[in-house]
Write a sequence for this structure.
């Protein structure tokens, strides 16, 4: 019993000591946390102070640098004024006159043609054919182009061929006229259809389709006159253009080149659509009216429609691309024996095989505008190899079948080169 009492007394005496030690440890822990918090706050305040000082220093350096630059600029302006007040120099503009010189380019178009031709129609160069069984110079073209002023520009194309020198085109063009219009005046190729305005070296194949040759000849439809181009605001297509032309011309095929009233009137409406980033289409309607005989009594009317669809992927335009084009022409020719109705068409497909190679095929059908009972069909296959944008070679096989004469088969090897800024382009 005594032992139990002693133990109880000792336990009671120990309890205050344990509680006191626990309270003291808690106070020490609390004081350490407070010290840490105070240190963190002081460190944050110091960081803010250091950043503020750095910003002030950078701002001061920028202001000093700006003042220094301004002082140098003032010194330079003072020196320049002092020099200009002492002496004045005059310079001649002779060295700058070369900037007024026009852009001059020269291009050559040569070919060799062999094959079977029972008729004289394609054996020798003429208005209908380029020749067979020899090596020929189709033309040396000299191009002279220049911007005359901010509102107009001039273009002249000289053609040196086997028969001499001729002005292929030569005109002045006024741009940005009222009514969204531009005007050409001079010797021009008409905007009839799609390929009529192409110069020979820029054609997608060696020759023009048979229907264009039979209706207008190798020299195309054109003459000396004026041509207006209007940009029409309409919702029919994304872009609409209207060409209206009046000129004196003709080559005694559909239109006469004789007489005093051999005025030809031409209109062409072009509609353009963007279907996607890689595909677009162009549809055109054309009409031409003029006299067809030297007495200027009878007239001819020719209507045409053309459709072009192109697929060119934007990221691979140098390696891939397809062009499909079809054109249909209808002719109504008045004569002493009555009206003669004739028509013709062509359709061709061109595919790019890589950065240098292209392949194309074409089908032709054409009646003769002055005798519709005569017709001819043609098939063409061509391969192009572009050595560069200035030089290309072309191999072409052409077969023509006629119901009024013997047909022919020809193989043509063409080389074409250009030097200067005017390359193989559309005009």
């Amino acid at each position: 019993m005594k032992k139990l009492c002693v133990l109880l007394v000792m336990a009671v005496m120990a309890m205050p000591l344990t509680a006191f030690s626990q309270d003291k440890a808690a106070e020490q822990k609390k004081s350490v946390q407070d010290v840490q918090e105070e240190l963190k706050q002081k460190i944050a305040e110091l960081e803010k102070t250091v950043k503020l000082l750095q910003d002030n220093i950078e701002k001061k350096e920028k202001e000093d640098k700006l003042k220094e630059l301004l002082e140098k600029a003032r010194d330079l302006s003072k020196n320049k004024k002092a020099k200009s007040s002492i002496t004045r120099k005059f310079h001649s503009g002779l060295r700058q006159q070369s900037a007024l010189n026009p852009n001059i380019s020269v291009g050559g178009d040569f070919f060799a043609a062999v094959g079977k031709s029972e008729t004289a129609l394609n054996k020798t160069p003429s208005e209908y054919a380029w020749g067979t069984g020899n090596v020929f110079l189709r033309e040396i073209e000299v191009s002279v182009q220049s911007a005359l002023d901010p509102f107009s520009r001039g273009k002249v194309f000289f053609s040196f061929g086997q028969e001499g020198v001729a002005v292929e085109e030569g005109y002045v063009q006024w741009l940005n006229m009222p009514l969204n219009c531009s005007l050409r005046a001079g010797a021009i190729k008409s905007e009839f259809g799609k390929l009529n305005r192409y110069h020979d070296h820029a054609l997608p194949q060696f020759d023009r389709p048979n229907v264009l040759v039979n209706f207008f000849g190798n020299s195309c439809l054109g003459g000396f006159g004026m041509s207006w181009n209007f940009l029409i605001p309409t919702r029919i297509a994304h872009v609409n253009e209207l060409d209206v032309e009046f000129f004196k011309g003709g080559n005694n095929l559909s239109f006469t080149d004789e007489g005093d009233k051999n005025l030809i009137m031409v209109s062409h409406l072009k509609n353009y659509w963007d279907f996607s980033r890689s595909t677009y289409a162009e549809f055109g309607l054309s009409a031409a009216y003029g006299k067809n005989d030297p007495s200027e009594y009878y007239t001819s009317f020719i209507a045409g429609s053309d459709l072009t669809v192109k697929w060119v992927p934007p990221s691979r335009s140098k390696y891939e691309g397809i062009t499909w084009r079809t054109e249909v022409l209808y002719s109504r020719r008045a004569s002493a024996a009555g009206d003669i109705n004739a028509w013709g068409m062509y359709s061709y497909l061109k595919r790019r095989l890589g950065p240098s190679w292209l392949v194309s095929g074409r089908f032709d059908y054409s009646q003769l505008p002055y005798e519709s009972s005569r017709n001819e069909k043609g098939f063409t296959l061509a391969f192009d190899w572009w050595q560069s944008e200035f030089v290309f070679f072309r191999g072409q096989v052409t077969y023509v079948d006629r119901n009024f004469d013997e047909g022919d088969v020809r193989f043509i090897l063409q080389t074409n080169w250009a030097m200067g800024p005017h390359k193989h382009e559309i005009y």
